[in-house]
Amino acid sequence: MSWGALYAQLGGVNKHSTSLGKIWLSVLFIFRISILVIAAEAVWGDEQSDFTCNTQQPGCKNVCYDHFFPVSHIRFWCLQLIFVSTPALLVAMHVAYHKHNVKKGLLANRGGGVKGEDLKSLKKRRLPITGALWWTYTSSLFFRLLFEAGFMYALYYVYDGFQMARLVKCEQWPCPNKVDCFISRPTEKTVFTIFMVGSSSICIVLNVAELAYLIVKALLRCSARARGRRSFVHQDEMSTEKAQLQNEKNAKLLSSASDSSSNKTV
Amino acid sequence: MNWASFYAVISGVNRHSTGIGRIWLSVLFIFRIMVLVVAAESVWGDEKAHFICNTQQPGCNSVCYDHFFPISHIRLWALQLIMVSTPALLVTMHIAHRRHIDKKLYRQAGRTSPKDIEQIKNQKMKITGALWWTYMISLLFRVLFESAFMYLFYMIYPGYKMFRLVKCDSYPCPNIVDCFVSRPTEKTVFTIFMLAVSGICILLNIAEIVFLVARATSRHLNNSKDSPVGAWISQKLFSL
């Protein structure tokens, strides 16, 4: 599995993430993918070859292994990491689409007068997370949360908890009656399962925190905009009120002037 | 495990470390990671396949292996290396944050030429102020993780010696069964080596902590009053 290529893809998204998003990416790569690569693949490597059953019945070992391990933990975690990393690509696609539009606009407006520098600065520019991008980013976070929680629940459901037993009792056909089967390295597997579940929970917490942060920032931005509009309207109202008062004053002055002039004439 | 990319990330921190920090990084990579990759993985490679028990009872091998080796030495050392190197990333993140702020300030001041941006990128940050605290915290965490793993090692495998023979009586082994560990002497040699290098790394980290604290104290003394003591301390330290 080429985790390097995944890292290269996600590293590009990093530029447009919030700080919490950047921390999430580091936790993902350092703790989850590195641990998966170094340790878990070595620990689970011999899971089928060293799965021994106390019987000489041919086929019993295969059938029992398949019954107790429908999907290996390693495959589960690889799938989880792939699914969880994919929503970030939504954001990357949106940013690329936006930049493409801006580039088109620049070329249309200025024609041949567009300098290479302008295009370069466009490439390097970091887009603020507002408007449509905010919605894309929030949906990507939401999907990430959904996938993380979904996979954790699936692991818990398929393996009845996070602990690996030393001994399982199997009575699938063709095993005669009940047969004891022994799992290889159960304690080491339990340790790594707990570790991966722990890092998964940390990632969930980071995603929830990032979601809350984005929502709060958007609400603050909305309220600041509403306040700004209200003060503008208030100024408008104030000026019309002032104008009205001024008109009344003028009318009074005019009437007093005409009175005085009429008085004079009289 | 792609230790090369790991090295690339960690050596980025190298530029902003103190001299002792750079020595720590070299010890980490040459003595620990290289030895782990080159030697230890081939010595421990057949640890389960060649763990043989004197019985024909199916499952007894697996169960006894699991009882005596709850977590393999190799995995423990790999985890230790990852955990111990991670605090350095705190420092990298802090420096990246500071550079980002500097870039913003430069842009506001109107200095946006590529030469200025290059200057920010290549600038070596001094370990003062908030960066000093971040660096100290990362060092403390390093010492904490190293010691925690050494203690964990001692708890799981009391003593550093690997036995040739272990006696096992877990179910389903009938009565007590003799089980033989593969390459015990070679494993003992590497265990002693890795423990010793771990101890050296702890000492280097403590020395770095002391050095940073002393430097900060002398800087503080120098700034607060022009005392001959402050000047003497700073002269002694900077001549190291």
From TrEMBL, chain A:
The UniProt entry's GO CC annotations, sorted and at most eight, read: connexin complex
**What assembly does the database describe for this protein?**
A connexon is composed of a hexamer of connexins.
GO biological process terms, alphabetically, are: cell-cell signaling; gap junction-mediated intercellular transport; sensory perception of sound
Instruction: Pinpoint the Connexin cysteine-rich domain residues.
Output: 147-214
Name of protein: Gap junction protein
Q: Which gene encodes it?
A: LOC113053388
UniProt feature, compositional bias: Low complexity: 252-266
What family is reported?
Belongs to the connexin family.
Q: Does the keyword Transferase apply?
A: no
**Residues spanning the membrane:** 23-44, 74-97, 132-159, 194-220
Give one Pfam hit by family name: Connexin
| Region annotation Disordered: where it falls in the sequence | 238-266
Q: Where is the Connexin N-terminal domain?
A: 42-75
State the PANTHER family in the record: CONNEXIN, GAP JUNCTION BETA-2 PROTEIN
Record's keyword terms, sorted: Cell junction, Cell membrane, Gap junction, Hearing, Membrane, Transmembrane, Transmembrane helix
Q: What is the stated purpose of this protein? A: One gap junction consists of a cluster of closely packed pairs of transmembrane channels, the connexons, through which materials of low MW diffuse from one cell to a neighboring cell.
State the superkingdom: Eukaryota
Compartments, as annotated in UniProt:
Cell junction, Gap junction; Cell membrane
Q: How does it sit in the membrane?
A: Multi-pass membrane protein
InterPro entries linked:
Connexin, Connexin_CCC, Connexin_CS, Connexin_N, Connexin_N_sf
| One MF annotation (Gene Ontology) recorded for this entry | gap junction channel activity
From TrEMBL, chain B:
Gene Ontology molecular function: any one = gap junction channel activity
Its name, as the record gives it, is Gap junction protein
Query: Which species is the source of this protein?
Result: Carassius auratus (Goldfish)
Q: What does this protein do?
A: One gap junction consists of a cluster of closely packed pairs of transmembrane channels, the connexons, through which materials of low MW diffuse from one cell to a neighboring cell.
Parts of the chain that traverse the membrane: 21-40, 77-97, 130-157, 190-214
This entry carries the following GO cellular component terms, namely: connexin complex
Q: Which InterPro entries match?
A: Connexin, Connexin_CCC, Connexin_CS, Connexin_N, Connexin_N_sf
Chief subcellular location: other
Q: How does it assemble?
A: A connexon is composed of a hexamer of connexins.
What gene name is given for the protein in this entry?
LOC113048801
Localization recorded for this chain is: Cell junction, Gap junction; Cell membrane
Give the keywords, sorted.
Cell junction, Cell membrane, Gap junction, Membrane, Transmembrane, Transmembrane helix
Q: Where is the Connexin cysteine-rich domain positioned along the sequence?
A: 145-212
Where does the record place the Connexin N-terminal domain? 42-75
- Please cite one Gene Ontology biological process associated with this protein: cell-cell signaling
Q: Could you tell me which PROSITE patterns the record lists for this protein?
A: CONNEXINS_1, CONNEXINS_2
What membrane topology is given?
Multi-pass membrane protein
Q: Which family does it belong to?
A: Belongs to the connexin family.
